[in-house]
Each structure stands twice: as C-alpha cells, then as structure tokens.
Amino acid sequence: EPEVTQTPSHQVTQMGQEVILRCVPISNHLYFYWYRQILGQKVEFLVSFYNNEISEKSEIFDDQFSVERPDGSNFTLKIRSTKLEDSAMYFCASSEQGPNTEAFFGQGTRLTVV
Amino acid sequence: AQSVTQLDSQVPVFEEAPVELRCNYSSSVSVYLFWYVQYPNQGLQLLLKYLSGSTLVESINGFEAEFNKSQTSFHLRKPSVHISDTAEYFCAVSDMGRTAGNKLTFGGGTRVLVKP
Predict the structure, then answer these.
(1) Hey, which of A28, A59, B64, B101 has its CA 20 to 30 A from A114?
(2) How many CB atoms sit inside 10 A of residue A70's CB?
(3) Whole-number Å distance between alpha carbons of B77 and B37
(4) Containing H/E element for A92?
C-alpha cells in the first residue's frame, strides 16, 4: 500500500540552527501539506503546495519557513533559524486533487529545539 | 474559518464495552467531516468521512459516525471495542467550498485507552 514517508523520525537541533524536514509523498498525488502539533495542542495546518508553488499558508508559516519540491519526489520543509517554540511534531501529507479526497499522512518528525 | 472541539481528551473504556467520542464543529460554511486515528508510533490514518448523502457513515473496523447538522456534531461510536482500538482519535473538517486541495482543521484529539 502506498504511504507517505518522513525522515528523520526525530531531530534535535540548537536554537538558531536551520533544519530541513523531508517527506516523500505518494507518487501520483498532486497536493502536499505540512501540519504541526505542539505537545498538548491541536494539529495545525501550516502550508499546502500544488504545481510547484504554495497554494495556501497559515499565519504560522512566516518568513522563517519555506517549502520545496526539489526533485519531483521529495517535499521538504525548511525552518531557517529555529526557535524553542518550533519544537513540535511535524506531519507531511499528500492528497489527490479535490477538497473531498483523503489526505494521507506520514508518521511525523518530532523536532526538538534546545 | 472553522473550529473543532473534542470534548473529551481521554476516554478509558473496558474491552467489549461501547465507546462514544464527541466532536462538535463551528463553521460559517458547509464542511466535510473526517475522523482520523493515530495508533502508537504511527501517522494519522483516515477512519471515516462524511461528504454527503446518508448522515450515518461506517468504517471497516466497526466504527460509525453520525453527522447532525442542527447540532453541528459528528460523534464517533463503536458498540464493542477491542484492545487494538487503543489510539488517539482526531475529528477534522474541511471547507466544502474549496476548489482544490484539502486543508483540514483538527480538534484536540481524544485518547482512547482500552483496558482488558
């Protein structure tokens, strides 16, 4: 069964460092997403990506964040200069076209900023 | 904008007992409704969804949820739980008026612990 894969499963980084979280979406999917869940809080939408550009982003997704699909298979989330409050579980997801199609989620990357 | 409230953060339940997880939403537009499940150390998996038609939807593993428009609710039920149902359950909505993509707004999650 096709699945979304994320690497690494856990990343520890020092405050101020850049991190890149990696995802391989399902191959025939067209939409890609990042969500995050701060410990004890809700899963929050960060950004959606379609046709090699951001289609929508939340208020959380400020200039410190960027996304890229560098090679047609990977989908990455970069945090330029990490803050303590960026510590969270980050989920990648992908879906076929359409608002009622299922979003398939990866297992998540737990980011810890120290 | 939408918001989703799951009233119970944790629900302990004995094996073979029934369980109900409550979900209420608020939205100025019509929405699609979803329940996702997260088993330990795994990602979010779609359990069931309501798009249109019959307000009662079922999953392959015995869960069902009923959309109640007047009460803006989408409660999840299972008449008899198994140990393997131990997981966290997330209710989510998506704006029906979207032309593309699937941006989900999640509730806070309900952790179900099934005891033998």
Answers:
(1) A59
(2) 9
(3) 13
(4) strand A88-95
| Residue A79 identity | I
Identify the band that residue A99 occupies on the pLDDT scale cut at 50, 70 and 90.
low
Mutate to test the interface with A, among B25, B31, B44 (most CBs of A within 10 A): B44
Cβ contacts (< 8 Å) between A44 and chain B: which residues? Answer: 106
Assign B47 to helix, strand or coil.
Answer: strand
So what's the pLDDT on residue B93? 93
Quote the CA–CA distance of A39 and A103 in Å, as a whole number: 22
- Could you give the 3-state DSSP secondary structure of residue A84? helix
Residue A86, SS3?
A: helix
Question: Tell me, what amino acid is at B9?
Answer: S
Most distant CA atoms of chain A, gap in Å = 39
pLDDT digits (tens, 9 = 90+) for A8-64: 999 999 999 999 999 999 998 999 999 999 998 899 999 999 989 999 999 999 999
Give residues with Cβ within 8 angstroms of A52, minimum separation 6. Answer: A69
Tokens of B86: 């131990």
Task: List the single residue in A with minimal CA-CA distance to B102.
Answer: A99
Rounded distance between C-alpha atoms, residue A69 and residue A30, angstroms = 12
B101 and A91 in contact by Cβ < 8 A?
no
CB–CB of A23/A90 below 8 Å? no
Structure token pair of residue B25: 């939403």
Residue B100: the pLDDT is: 66
Q: Could you say which DSSP state residue B51 is in? A: -
